[in-house]
Design a protein that fits this description.
The structure is a single chain. By secondary structure, the chain is mainly β. It has 2 domains: 49 residues, no CATH class; 79 residues, OB fold (Dihydrolipoamide Acetyltransferase, E2P) (Beta Barrel). 7% of the residues lie in helices and 38% in strands. A hairpin with a 4-residue loop joins β4 and β5. It is globular and about 45 Å long. The two termini are 18 Å apart.
Length: 138
């Protein structure tokens, strides 16, 4: 499998700490200070209890495959890298994130399989680098 293409992230005030963590090679998520739930997708309030008391914390980067599909045909820049895996990973801290599974034969993947975050640098048009979290078997 070739390296998966990636677009530069769209940074907003809500997502800035997430992308800064990715650039350092760590997964950082918002967590509600009131109810303790980890939040995905990043936002300024807790979707569980509506609190606006939210802090950013480093999480383990570990999880399990919740669901996945093997994309055998891609479109645009993904055409050259098929087959690739699109998956939901349930993080050990609770949230489920949509991602790719890399570093594994798609035929060897299974629901419930342990995975770990893998940050691969991807060049931007302006020459700067950024990282996106993808996951590989643990």
């Amino acid at each position: 499998m070739s390296q998966l293409p990636v677009r530069p992230p769209h940074r907003t005030p809500e997502t800035e700490p997430f992308w800064d963590g990715c650039a350092r090679g760590v997964l950082v998520l918002p967590r509600c200070d009131r109810c303790g739930e980890h939040i995905w997708y990043p936002r300024r309030y807790c979707p569980f209890c509506s609190s606006r008391e939210v802090s950013w914390v480093e999480v383990s980067g570990r999880g399990t495959v919740y669901s996945f599909t093997i994309m055998r045909r891609g479109d645009g820049p993904y055409r050259a890298v098929a087959p690739y895996v699109l998956a939901y990973v349930e993080l050990d801290e609770g949230p489920r994130v949509m991602t790719n599974i890399v570093g594994a034969d798609p035929a060897d993947l299974a629901i419930g399989q342990p995975v770990v975050a893998d940050f691969a640098a991807s060049p931007r048009d302006d020459g700067e680098a950024f990282a996106v979290p993808r996951f590989r078997p643990a």
